[in-house]
């Protein structure tokens, strides 16, 4: 009996997975980052390496979906308030860096013999840094929240947004087959505008009701399918009218940035984005032609030097001019001088538009890859200088501001209890993020002016997307004891630095929470019951000092009973429930309640 043939792409998948499993950990161990590992894996298994697989061009068609999903996630993260706080770094510093660096590199490429269109695409593409690469360096060093880390992030954010007009620029620069009639041009413009309007209309008015309906079904796989449908569907609409798929996904993400399902969408998309982005880098590595590299070694080496020198100089000068210290400016300059993943996207689009050929794209890709490899070396060199010589301009003393020190709180569960907690916190200007898993409750809270997002407290990816990793305190205000217990175990394992404050549904739940070692717990009706009793005593004529004494005594006996119950069980300590609070002699003589 003949053996059945393997499914399509089975052998190729095995090779891809094996190469990345080997290369990525080695690259990360060497401090080069996962992106370099993916590129190296692709170079080794590709047609110019050991030829374990064929051309990377076919793989790129699938892997480009990773870029589409990346832009969708970037769009989701563009919260208007965050953008407004960082507006100078994003739109001022970031725009100046891209324009000045791009034009300088364009002039260098033009002088080197590139055609005008090819030089412009090459210069602007090389002006973009690697978001994945730079953010990984900042996170590994614990500097993402530092002043220079925030400025670097602002620049990267602008660069991520810049890919959209740059892709449009490639389409404009592409040689046309024929001019077409005026009517044809108007029809094409109308079709494009109609597609953009369709995406905006769907994102604004149709997607949120759809997710509300699907969330009520409590079927996670359906929500996941809907998230991919929104991202890829909007990309497909744009692609159908000749625009970039990335533009459609980015636009859909921006429209959903204020949606209550933002964090769940981000968490659902992330695994697919990461996997497809890894595949994208592998495919780019496969397209690296070592023959081209060796034949143009002097040009590529010179290009790497020019790229890193020009970009580093502009980064240092612009950050210094806009108020950064020399130390911060130097660290931004050595963190962002490399070419980025979007350069690969731009160069691939340029090849498809016949602006330049694959050989030119491979030469430019080689410059980008080598600049990535040298960036960690530049960072280590600056650290060496700072430690060895303690140079005044290189030291990076911590700078603390009130904004950086302000705590953030994640509130989980936004019913009546959670809403009151949120009101107390926001009354002191504390920033909160709230999640809940009931769409109707989320809709009601939003009508009251609260930003509440859909999310499952038992999913680490959702909690991470909602900010649990940087929260100073997590308020567990949900009603389900089992869900809370699962969430507490998850948070203790994944986000151990956050303080855990919990709402207990009853006394048994309070005991269970205490045994789990939460930082604070309170029974949901305890304080309101005491307030009720105080009001009743007041109405019955008890003096205020007597009411205070009773309140203090009841609290003391309740705490003693909890201690006994922790040691002996739920039904122990019942004697602490009974008894009369001792009276002061003067109170005993004049109490109107004395029988």
UniProtKB/TrEMBL annotation:
Span-the-membrane segments of this chain are: 6-27, 34-53, 59-78, 90-112, 118-138, 150-173, 185-207, 228-252, 272-290, 297-318, 330-352, 364-387
Q: Which UniProt keywords apply?
A: Antiport, Ion transport, Membrane, Potassium, Potassium transport, Transmembrane, Transmembrane helix, Transport
The annotated topology with respect to the bilayer is: Multi-pass membrane protein
Just give the chief location class.
membrane
Picking any one GO biological process from the record gives: proton transmembrane transport
Chain positions covered by the region annotation Disordered: 573-595
This entry's Gene Ontology molecular function terms read: antiporter activity; monoatomic cation transmembrane transporter activity
What range(s) does the RCK N-terminal domain occupy?
406-522
Give one Pfam family. Answer: TrkA_N
Q: Where in the cell is it found?
A: Endomembrane system
InterPro entries assigned to the protein according to its UniProt record, in alphabetical order: Cation/H_exchanger_TM, K/H_exchanger, Na+/solute_symporter_sf, NAD(P)-bd_dom_sf, RCK_N
Q: Name one GO cellular component term.
A: endomembrane system
Annotated family: Belongs to the monovalent cation:proton antiporter 2 (CPA2) transporter (TC 2.A.37) family.
- State what protein this is by name: Potassium efflux system protein
């Amino acid at each position: 009996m003949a053996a059945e043939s393997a499914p399509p792409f089975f052998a190729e998948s095995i090779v891809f997975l094996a190469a990345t499993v080997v290369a990525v950990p080695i690259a990360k161990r060497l401090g080069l980052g996962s992106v370099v590992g993916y590129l190296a894996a692709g170079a080794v298994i590709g047609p110019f390496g050991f030829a374990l697989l064929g051309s990377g061009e076919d793989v790129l068609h699938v892997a480009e979906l990773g870029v589409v999903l990346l832009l969708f996630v970037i769009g989701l993260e563009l919260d208007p308030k965050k953008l407004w706080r960082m507006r100078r770094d994003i739109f001022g510093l970031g725009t100046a860096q891209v324009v000045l660096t791009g034009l300088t590199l364009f002039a260098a490429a033009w002088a080197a013999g590139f055609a005008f269109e090819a030089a412009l695409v090459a210069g602007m593409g090389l002006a973009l840094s690697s978001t994945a690469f730079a953010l990984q360096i900042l996170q590994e060093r614990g500097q993402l929240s530092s002043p220079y880390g925030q400025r670097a992030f602002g620049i990267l954010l602008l660069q991520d947004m810049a890919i959209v007009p740059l892709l449009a620029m490639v389409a404009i620069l592409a040689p046309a087959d024929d001019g077409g009639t005026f009517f044809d041009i108007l029809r094409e413009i109308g079709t494009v505008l109609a597609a953009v309007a369709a995406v905006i209309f769907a994102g604004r008015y149709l997607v949120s009701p759809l997710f509300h309906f699907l969330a009520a079904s409590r079927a996670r796989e359906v929500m996941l399918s809907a998230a991919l449908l929104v991202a890829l569907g909007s990309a497909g609409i744009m692609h159908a009218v000749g625009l970039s798929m990335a533009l459609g996904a980015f636009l859909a993400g921006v429209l959903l940035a204020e949606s209550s399902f933002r964090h769940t969408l981000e968490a659902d998309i992330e695994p697919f984005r990461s996997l497809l982005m890894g595949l994208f880098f592998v495919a780019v590595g496969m397209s690296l032609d070592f023959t081209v590299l060796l034949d143009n070694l002097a040009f590529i080496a010179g290009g790497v030097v020019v790229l890193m020198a020009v970009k580093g100089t502009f980064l240092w000068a612009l950050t210094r001019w806009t108020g950064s210290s020399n130390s911060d400016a130097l660290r931004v300059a050595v963190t962002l001088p490399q070419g980025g993943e979007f350069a690969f996207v731009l160069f691939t689009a340029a090849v498809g538009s016949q602006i330049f050929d694959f050989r030119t794209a491979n030469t430019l890709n080689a410059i980008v890859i080598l600049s990535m490899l040298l960036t960690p070396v530049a960072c280590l060199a600056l650290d060496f200088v700072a430690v060895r010589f303690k140079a005044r301009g290189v030291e990076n003393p911590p700078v603390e501001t009130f904004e950086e020190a302000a705590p953030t709180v994640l509130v989980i569960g936004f019913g009546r209890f959670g809403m009151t907690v949120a009101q107390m916190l926001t009354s002191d200007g504390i920033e909160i993020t709230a999640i809940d898993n009931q769409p109707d409750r989320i809709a009601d809270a939003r009508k009251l002016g609260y930003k509440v997002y859909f999310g499952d407290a038992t999913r680490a990816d959702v909690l991470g997307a909602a900010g649990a990793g940087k929260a100073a305190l997590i308020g567990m205000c949900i009603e389900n004891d089992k869900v809370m217990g699962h969430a507490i175990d998850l948070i203790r394992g994944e986000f151990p630095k956050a303080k855990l404050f919990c709402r207990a549904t009853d006394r048994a739940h309070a005991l269970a929470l205490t045994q789990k070692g939460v930082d604070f717990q309170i029974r949901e009706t305890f304080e309101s019951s005491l307030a009720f009793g105080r009001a009743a005593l007041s109405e019955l004529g008890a003096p205020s000092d007597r009411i205070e004494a009773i309140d203090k005594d009841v609290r003391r006996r309740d705490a003693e009973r909890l201690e006994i119950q922790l040691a002996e069980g739920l039904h122990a300590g019942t004697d602490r429930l009974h008894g009369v609070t001792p009276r002061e002699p003067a109170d005993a003589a004049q109490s109107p309640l004395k029988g």
